[in-house]
Automatic annotation (TrEMBL):
PANTHER family for this protein: GUANOSINE-3',5'-BIS(DIPHOSPHATE) 3'-PYROPHOSPHOHYDROLASE MESH1
Gene3D superfamilies assigned: Hypothetical protein af1432
Name of the featured protein: HD domain-containing protein
Domain HD/PDEase: 21-128
Recorded superkingdom: Bacteria
Annotated signal peptide: none
Alphabetical list of InterPro entries matching this protein: HD/PDEase_dom, MESH1
Length: 178
């Protein structure tokens, strides 16, 4: 199932790049799957991690298509991880933080892995391009972006405080946002 998810996500994200870079987008969902695989061996959860941005960021992908291809559990997990792009950035991020507090453990794992992958990118790129990094994001303010990543950190603290991925995430949030 994991190989099928990689193949599906690679096709769905074809031509997409990570914001402000020349890195193929597929690197991110594969990394998210790898991080989730350190927390569980449940192939459906790992597949959902790899597929986590397909509904949100790929025009032709719907929850129904994922259900048909991967089953209802995978489709449901991906749908729960997807943001409503009709809302403002602040509304979406506030909803994500709140959702992370009460979401099923599988959704929380993927949320943590997703944000850790993003923080790894920030940590790698910030020392090189400095304050210009924030222009890549919709919300171009470092302090506001930091608010979001700290909010996710706090929402996941009780669930993952002893998890290596969470500890790395906290270190990177502190290093980059104080």
């Amino acid at each position: 199932m994991v190989d099928k998810a990689i193949e599906f996500a690679t096709k769905a994200h074809a031509g997409q790049l990570r914001k402000g870079t020349s890195r193929p987008y597929i690197v991110h969902p594969v990394e998210v799957g790898d991080i989730v695989a350190t927390m569980t061996d449940d192939e459906e959860v790992i597949a959902a991690a790899i597929l986590h941005d397909t509904i949100e960021d790929c025009e032709a992908v719907t929850e129904d298509i994922l259900e048909e291809q991967f089953g209802s559990r995978v489709a449901s997990i991906v749908a729960q991880e997807s943001e409503d792009k009709s809302k403002s950035w602040l509304e979406r991020k506030t909803a994500t933080i709140e959702h992370m507090r009460h979401a099923p453990i599988e959704v929380k794992m993927i949320g943590l892995a997703d944000k850790l992958s993003n923080m790894r990118d920030i940590n790698r790129d910030y020392p090189v391009i400095k304050e210009e990094l924030w222009t890549r994001f919709r919300m171009k303010d470092k302090q506001t972006i930091g608010w979001y990543y700290k909010g996710v950190r706090d929402a996941l603290a009780d669930t993952f405080e002893h998890e290596k991925a969470y500890q790395e995430y906290c270190e990177l949030v502190e290093k980059n946002f104080g």
